[in-house]
Amino acid sequence: MTTAPFGAELRDVVVRYGRKDTERALDGVTLSIRPGTITGLLGRNGAGKTTLAALLAAFRRPTSGSVLVGPAGGPLDDPFENPWVMMHTQLVRESGDVWGDSKACDTLDYYADLRPDWDADLAGRLLDELEVDVRKSPDALSRGKRSALGAVIGLASRAPLTIFDEVYLGMDAPSRYAFYDALVADYTEHPRTILLSSHLIDEVERLFEDVVVIDRGRVLLAEPAEDVRGRGVSLTGPADTIEPFVAGHQVLARQHLGPTSQVTLFGELDAAQRAAATQAGLEIGAVPLQDLFVHLTRKSSDLKEDAR
Amino acid sequence: MFDGPEPIYLQIAQQIRAQVLSGDLAEEEQVMSTTQYATTFRINPATAAKAFAGLVDEGVLYKRRGVGMFVATGARERLLAEHREHYFADVLGPALVQADLLGIPAADIVDHVLGRSTTPRTPSYPEA
């Protein structure tokens, strides 16, 4: 790789759409994507993930605010109509961005010409492994094979900024795992910035170095994955024993099972609180990223409902 | 693998310490590279690197430039000493608390440890 991994900065980004521009796909997003990381982009359907990806790849412009993309350590630029930045940015969307009615190998030739760091050997190996027949047209391929073709284009482009927007759709489990394996292996040898959006959080969370959670066009969370994992804590035990530990924390969920309660808290317990909780006979547990995500995004939508 | 509540890098470090303790990883033996670790366990390479860096700081592993990571001489002995120190507090302590809770007399436990227990190896106590 000749070009350093790209970083990205978004400041106060708003994207409006719809009649009279009243709807907001993104509503004041300020965010940094650290160069050289695999960053997970998580959000519910309609949260704004795809709009964010389209901005970074210069497929569209924000209504207001700034989007800057560029190599680590170098100046960041507006990617829109910026040939150099666009050449080094690969977005793989659900649609695949392929010529549906001509042979898949024609699309591959196109990307090979377009991306300066394209690796044809890697593409060939992955296409074999994922059993994609490049003599067929993408329209003639199954949903899963079409997605696999997109995944191969994303990996083989070796672009300093590579964005996979729900690339796994229709891919069966063995193909998805082959994709994750190829991603980790190739990223380790050719470091670059990878933004990966997925609803299959359990499958991909360990691949992430950073995690961004967006909900209703806003950033809920953007930090190292390790910190996110430490964000939630669950306490299990007698209800009245738990209550003193709940004070001062945001409660994400509360479940009662007879005399036993389980409370999921947003926030950390310090060492003293942990010791005290254990002493009191409470069980302290971790909250998987997927559960934390479900709680966080449900919470924020509930709040909006309440406000109406 | 790595499903515990602790951060993944700590779980990786713990797994390697356990392998050194058990002798599965001999001293001066090369350990998997960050890349091999990341691809084998499908985790972010930075997470694996953080685990290895921690083990280097602890003196369990050391780095040979351009070659890889190796288990340090004396690492097993040091880990044994540390784990022995914590054995009573961390392992036996909770087991004895549980025995109290179940109403198992200390004499039974001693008998069991000394192998002169009359109860089967997996003792079943009558429900109180």
Note down, in words, how this protein is organized:
The complex is a heterodimer of chains A (308) and B (128). With 308 residues, chain A is of the alpha/beta class. Chain A has 2 domains: 6-223, P-loop containing nucleotide triphosphate hydrolases (Rossmann fold, 3-Layer(aba) Sandwich), CATH 3.40.50.300; 228-307, Alpha-Beta Plaits, CATH 3.30.70. Chain A is 36% helix and 29% strand. Chain A is built from 11 helices and 13 strands. In chain A, the strands form 3 sheets. In chain A, strands 5-6-7-3-8-9 form a 6-stranded mixed beta sheet, sandwiched between helices. A 4-stranded antiparallel beta sheet of chain A has the order 11-12-10-13, with helices on both faces. In chain A, α4 (120-129) runs antiparallel to α5 and α5 runs parallel beside α6 (173-189). Chain A is globular, with a radius of gyration of 22 Å. The model of chain A is unreliable at 304-308 (pLDDT under 50). Chain B has 128 residues and is mainly alpha-helical. Chain B has 2 domains: 8-73, Arc Repressor Mutant, subunit A (Orthogonal Bundle); 76-114. Helices cover 58% and strands 6% of the residues of chain B. Chain B has 5 helices and 2 strands; from the N terminus they run αααββαα. Chain B has a two-stranded antiparallel ribbon. In chain B, α1 packs across α3 and α2 crosses α3. The model of chain B has no long low-confidence stretch (mean pLDDT 87). The chains are: A alpha/beta (308), B mainly alpha (128). The A-B interface holds A 37-38, 177, 180-181, 184-185, 187-189, 206-209, 225-226, 229-230, 284-286 and B 2, 4-9, 34-35, 38-39, 41-47.
